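Exercise 7.
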Amino acid sequence: MFPNPYPDEIFYSVMARYHFWSRGKSCSATIGELFGTERLAAIVDFPCGLSSLQSKVSAHHSFKEENLIQYHTFFPLHQPFLSSEKVDAIVCKLKVGGNKGGGVHALLGYGGSSVNIFSSTLRYCSCCVQDDIELYGETYWHRIHQISVIQECPIHNNPLKISTVPFRDRQHKYQFVDLNDVINGLTPRPLKNNETEVYFNSDLLSSNTQYLLNNVVTPLDFESFRKRYVYLLKTAGYASLSGKVNILALSEDFVKRYGRNFLEQIGCLPSPSNEKNWLNSFARYSRFMISPVKHLLMMVFLKITAADFFENISFDEPFGNGPWPCLNIGADHYRKEVIQAVKMKTHPKDKKIVIGTFQCDCGFVYTRYGPEKKNSEQERYSYNYVKQYGGVWGEKLKYLLTVEKKSQRELASHFQVSWITVKRYSAHGETRKRSLKMLVPKLPKGFVQKRSQYRSQWRDLQIRYPEKGKTQLSILLQNPFYWLKKYDKEWLEKNSPPLKKAMRYNPSPIDWNKRDEMLLLKCKEAVQQLLSSKEPVRLTINSIGEVTSSVRLLTRKKSEIPKTMDYIQHIVENHEDFQIRRIQKAAIILRANGERLVAWKLKEAAHIEKAALSKKVNEQINKIINEYDLGG
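Solution. The predicted structure, written as tokens, is:
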């Protein structure tokens, strides 16, 4: 009876339809029937345990776990932006599930991200609902409608309806909600005023999202992404020829394009700080994963389709594509393409000219002006200036000069440099003179007079302030201090106060009795707050700890807070106690509305399934009904 998924239907919706048509006792029982365990949560985005499901579906069924992952989960939205190792790990978790599965959200970096990839509640299009019913006799949850940046149906161009079904429901995490039940029994929640202001739509944004969901896109590495974005930013005028991004102009235009309210709603508003601005990550060397929502927004901003971005983009680099040749005539790899990277910067006087610096492992470093002409071999194997010849070039020069007895003019012709350059780098040239000069540093004018004057000032200062250390004295006498440090360092070290050891920080001991008393008061207030909340919340150590912001204390320092733990142990609820409290609260609401108390109404109002009731809970239901009958 397991149904075939409809086009673009999320797996969560397939399970909801199966639960309805199979007339299962409960969603947990349905999960146990299909997956072999009732403790597998009803997850909307990344369901696990698909291999277990495939083994239970009949052989004639068209079910395939690979097709479910690709066309009925949200994994394809992330796949193009992941490493191949991470793709394999996530696919394995989606197939295995259970104790060996899960953890997909952690692999995708959901824990530390503020980006809202999906809407907070499930959404649908009223026109799609009508089309589905006419075509299939029932409707279903569409995958494209649940992505946060899509606020209008791509097919009908109608604003999406917002249901009351949460995307992630911790209170009912084993429950599948069918869209057919929603449209028949519930009305969509109306948009609030602040939500109508953040409405944004783009056909390109919708088509790019659909492309990622409906195609198997091969993942790219981080460097390939960076090159593509840098090229597009250059084309759009937000980056120089060397690849430096004008982040201020980019941020301003980006916010104007989408609107501040819309970007705030999906958690993608660029930070005013350039260092924390996430737009920087597209042009920098980074291995941090970028959310697919940010990729989609940037592609639309740069006016490129996802298909062209991944398949048809062509780069016009200022110096062509690497590797680049080494132009060291003295090396065995001369004119061979062994240089893997080039450093670029714009010309200080002409911003249209880019200067590329090429450095080989042999030590030869040369620069060339660009952009070069396409397919120009003459430009590719030439340079404008040699910054460093390197050891290999120098050894070759020395060998030809001393062993083969070549003249300096012959060497100049061989190395394609001037005769002066050969003379300067020969054994008796400037190289030797420079090394001798480095041994004897040049002293400033008036050295003896300044040394005597600054020494005297340094001694007098120590006499005036005997309690101050070397660092404090240097602040009071900056110029003499730094002059002595540069030209008379040995004397300065001998005639300065000794360094003082830093004082260790000894924190005062914690008064656990006082902390226990304060925490006890906070926990009592938290319990009252939880008991008076509109939606019942089970009293547990974690729920109380979340309200008091003290989960770590309550779970790891139990022995230090005996009064608090004694109170909590008497107040926490087990599963039965929580069900009874929900039933009691439901009875109060039903009485206030003037409704008759019957068992099925109590269970429905308390959101408790029949299969989940124990003997104790049933007795409590009968007790409440009997008291009501006697009183009324």
